[in-house]
Design goal:
Elements: E1 4-9, H1 13-29, E2 33-39, E3 48-59, E4 65-75, E5 78-80, H2 85-94, E6 100-102, E7 107-110, E8 117-120, H3 142-163, H4 173-182, H5 184-195, H6 206-223, H7 239-248, E9 257-260, H8 265-277, E10 283-289, E11 293-299, E12 302-307, E13 310-314, E14 316-319, H9 323-329, E15 330-332, H10 337-348, E16 352-360, E17 376-379, E18 392-395, H11 396-399, E19 417-421, H12 444-449, H13 452-458, E20 481-487, H14 491-512, E21 521-523, H15 534-548
Parallel strand pairs: 1-2, 1-14, 2-10, 7-17, 11-15, 14-21
Antiparallel strand pairs: 3-4, 5-9, 6-9, 7-8, 11-12, 12-13, 16-19, 16-20, 17-18, 18-19
């Protein structure tokens, strides 16, 4: 029986997820399938990079001093298993779920001058909340109640747009909050009734409180999201951040926020190992790393994957990369020029931002009052500041769950941080942590649990990781930083997502009707679905398998 060949370009969640769901389809239907997955780096994951850092010497009870190591995720670092049902199901099947550990799900909102100083501690456990800063008590509890009403209103607004099939990409975050200010009762009363929260619409302080909700909570929080426009959140479609909220904070229960024990790449490597273990008569999976693959469709229906001097034919290609990478790696023959032009117009309309994720000990990034330190620390613009992109700072000791880990929860162990910044100069070099590049002194138990990519680093093999291709300065080569890249989820990007979905659906419809599409290429990757959360990547990967399922019946 002829084996269908599928080439997947990209070794992140989207590419591996497509292979996983295709594997499930083969196991149900039994027709042979050969998947080759090409990843240009020697490690898996797009914005995934796990490093080991040394924080000094740990004094043991026996009076000895031993090197004290910790690992840190730069970039992708946690998920909400309450909302991420696909992710949870996949992890259960491959036996990885026990590696997902609970973290302290708390946030801090503070300006550098502490004019604004609030902590969201509703999910705090094993920690101390200072009543002076607790968001639940701010403004006699009225601020937190108003946040709930505003949040429900925004989600209701999106639902109404969807129910009425309205394309309201022109309805921006800024306009939504202005509507709230212009007529609070008209916009907010429905959500208040649903939540059984009583608001005094005649209260003269209500407009000022709404401004606080906007300027001290939502604008800073949205601007700390990785897909936000670097010009700030006001001009973004309301759909962008609140669809993120709906997925990231969704579910009928409280969020079950988890981090990847010993690094996010462990999960990708586990998924790849699971797929390799499924190899048999009807399913063959090849993982080719360190392979900068390009795709050319020279004639209708003919796709060729080029890796160096090799040309590998493929019945189908799944481009599971970012739009800009797909744009560079995909070409068409003369007879498909018009088709290729349309595809490239879609890919080229997606805009990208880049920032730096840095592991460090520069406590000045955090509020001066340590009672405000939380897992997620969000900077609120000071009064009079000019426009600049917001960034976020993680307290790694909380994000990596020290309070529930007796081995690390000891007095005197140093706090360290991972910050997302737009300029590496914001972290003084003397406070940047070094990547450990020597495995000899790493405890064997820790070494065995780390991702393979990190273990290669510990053997002194410093490869390009995440989107870190080159160093801005030679003396930063061994520092624990990487480049974090993501598409801007603006109106133009959402239109590109819709256009690419239409392309995928047209190709799938042809296949369903027994036709051979002129361009046997489908597109996946985080940029194709919402904000590109892991759950959304898996949702898109599941669609890829559904679209290709006629080949496997």
């Amino acid at each position: 029986m002829h084996s269908t060949s599928v080439a997947i370009i990209g070794g992140g969640v989207s590419g591996l997820g497509a292979a996983y769901y295709l594997c499930q389809t083969v196991q149900r239907n039994g027709r042979p399938l050969h998947i080759r997955l090409f990843e240009q780096k020697n490690q898996l994951g797009g914005n995934a990079d796990t490093v080991v850092v040394q924080l000094g010497a740990l004094q043991t009870g026996a009076g000895q001093a031993v090197p004290y190591f910790r690992w840190a995720d730069l970039g992708v670092n946690d998920v909400n298993l309450t909302a991420y049902q696909r992710l949870k199901a996949v992890m259960e099947q491959i036996g990885f779920l026990d590696n997902m550990k609970p973290l302290q799900d708390t946030e801090s909102y503070a300006s550098s001058d502490l004019r604004v100083a609030l902590t969201d501690d509703k999910y705090l456990c094993d920690g101390v909340s200072d009543p002076a800063f607790n968001l639940a008590a701010a403004d006699q509890g009225r601020l937190a109640l108003l946040i709930q009403v505003v949040h429900r209103t925004a989600l209701n607004t999106l639902s109404e747009f969807e129910q009425q099939a309205q394309d309201r990409l022109d309805y921006t975050v800024g306009r939504f909050f202005q509507d709230c200010l212009d007529d609070p009762q008209a916009l907010l009363s429905k959500a208040a009734q649903e939540l059984k929260i009583k608001l005094d619409w005649a209260d003269p302080t209500l407009p000022a409180r709404l401004q606080r909700v906007r300027d001290e909570i939502y604008y800073p929080r949205i601007s700390a999201m990785y897909f936000t426009d670097d010009q700030g959140p006001a001009g973004m479609p309301l759909q962008a951040p609140f669809e993120y909220y709906r997925v990231q904070e969704g579910g009928n229960e409280a969020p079950d926020r988890r981090y990847f024990d010993h690094g996010s790449q462990t999960w990708l490597e586990a998924l790849a190992a699971f797929l390799l273990a499924q190899n048999g008569p009807h399913f063959r999976f090849e993982l080719v790393t360190g392979a900068a693959a390009t795709v050319r469709v020279a004639q209708p229906g003919q796709a060729m994957v080029h890796v160096g001097e090799k040309a590998i034919p493929a019945d189908w290609v799944v481009m599971a990369t970012h739009a800009d990478d797909a744009l560079k790696g995909l070409s068409f023959g003369d007879t498909l020029h018009q088709y290729g032009r349309q595809i490239k117009l879609i890919l080229g309309s997606v805009r990208y931002t880049r920032s730096y994720a840095v592991a460090h000990t520069h406590a000045a990034r955090l509020p001066a009052n340590r009672a405000l330190w939380r897992t997620y620390n969000i900077h609120v613009r000071d009064a009079g500041d000019s426009l600049f992109p917001y960034r976020i700072d993680y307290v790694a000791n909380l994000h990596q769950n020290d309070p529930l880990n007796p081995r690390y929860d000891r007095a005197g162990l140093p706090q360290f941080f991972v910050s997302l910044v737009d300029d590496l100069n914001l972290i003084p070099r003397q406070h940047m942590l070094d990547r450990v590049l020597d495995s000899a002194s790493i405890p064997a138990e820790m070494l065995a649990a780390l991702p393979q990519a990190t273990r290669r680093q510990l053997e002194g093999i410093l490869e390009p990781s995440a989107y870190r291709v080159s160093d801005p300065a030679n003396d930063l080569q061994q520092k624990a930083w990487t480049t974090f890249k993501h598409n801007v989820l603006d109106a133009q990007c959402i239109r590109a997502q819709r256009a690419m979905l239409a392309h995928n659906q047209r190709v799938a419809a042809q296949l369903e009707h027994g036709q051979r599409p002129a361009v046997p290429v489908l597109f996946s990757g985080g940029w194709t679905h919402g904000a590109g959360l892991q759950e959304q990547c898996l949702a898109q990967a599941e669609l890829i398998a559904q679209w290709l399922s006629p080949l496997l019946r």
